[in-house]
Amino acid sequence: MSKTIDPQLRARCVWLVREHQQEYPSQFAAVTAVARHEGISKDSVRRWLAKVLRAMTL
Protein backbone atom coordinates (compact mmCIF):
# COMPACT_ATOMS: atom_id res chain seq x y z
CA MET A 1 0.00 0.00 0.00
CA SER A 2 1.45 3.33 -1.02
CA LYS A 3 1.56 6.28 1.33
CA THR A 4 -0.50 9.32 0.35
CA ILE A 5 1.67 12.41 0.07
CA ASP A 6 0.26 15.89 0.49
CA PRO A 7 -0.01 17.55 -2.95
CA GLN A 8 1.43 20.75 -1.47
CA LEU A 9 4.55 18.84 -0.42
CA ARG A 10 4.92 17.46 -3.95
CA ALA A 11 4.54 20.91 -5.46
CA ARG A 12 7.00 22.44 -2.99
CA CYS A 13 9.62 19.77 -3.71
CA VAL A 14 9.34 20.22 -7.47
CA TRP A 15 9.50 23.99 -7.08
CA LEU A 16 12.56 23.77 -4.82
CA VAL A 17 14.43 21.54 -7.27
CA ARG A 18 13.64 23.78 -10.23
CA GLU A 19 14.37 26.98 -8.30
CA HIS A 20 17.70 25.84 -6.82
CA GLN A 21 18.99 23.46 -9.48
CA GLN A 22 21.67 25.93 -10.67
CA GLU A 23 23.22 25.84 -7.18
CA TYR A 24 24.08 22.13 -7.58
CA PRO A 25 26.41 20.32 -9.98
CA SER A 26 23.53 18.21 -11.35
CA GLN A 27 19.78 17.82 -11.22
CA PHE A 28 20.27 14.61 -9.26
CA ALA A 29 22.24 16.50 -6.59
CA ALA A 30 19.42 19.06 -6.30
CA VAL A 31 16.83 16.28 -6.03
CA THR A 32 18.90 14.56 -3.34
CA ALA A 33 19.28 17.77 -1.32
CA VAL A 34 15.57 18.62 -1.48
CA ALA A 35 14.57 15.07 -0.56
CA ARG A 36 16.93 15.06 2.41
CA HIS A 37 15.66 18.47 3.56
CA GLU A 38 12.00 17.42 3.31
CA GLY A 39 12.57 13.97 4.81
CA ILE A 40 11.33 11.94 1.85
CA SER A 41 12.95 9.60 -0.64
CA LYS A 42 14.92 11.02 -3.54
CA ASP A 43 13.14 8.59 -5.86
CA SER A 44 9.80 10.17 -4.98
CA VAL A 45 11.10 13.67 -5.72
CA ARG A 46 12.72 12.45 -8.95
CA ARG A 47 9.42 10.88 -10.11
CA TRP A 48 7.40 13.98 -9.26
CA LEU A 49 9.85 16.19 -11.11
CA ALA A 50 9.84 13.91 -14.16
CA LYS A 51 6.04 13.92 -14.22
CA VAL A 52 5.91 17.72 -14.15
CA LEU A 53 8.59 18.06 -16.83
CA ARG A 54 6.76 15.57 -19.09
CA ALA A 55 3.52 17.49 -18.65
CA MET A 56 5.27 20.71 -19.62
CA THR A 57 6.42 19.25 -22.96
CA LEU A 58 2.94 18.15 -24.04
Summed up, what is this model?
The protein contains 3 helices and no strands.
List the helices and strands and how they pair.
Blueprint: H1 7-20, H2 27-38, H3 42-57
User: Count the helices. How many?
Assistant: 3
Q: What is the H/E order?
A: HHH
CATH architecture: Orthogonal Bundle
Distance between the termini: 30 Å
For the biggest sheet, the summary is: none
- Bulk shape: globular
Could you walk me through the main structural features you see in this protein, from its secondary elements to its overall organization?
By secondary structure, the chain is mainly alpha-helical. The protein has a single domain (7-57), classed as Arc Repressor Mutant, subunit A (Orthogonal Bundle), CATH 1.10.10.10. Helices cover 72% and strands 0% of the residues. The chain has three helices and no strands. The protein has helices at 7-20, 27-38, 42-57. Helix 1 (7-20) packs across helix 2 (27-38) and helix 1 crosses helix 3. The protein is globular.
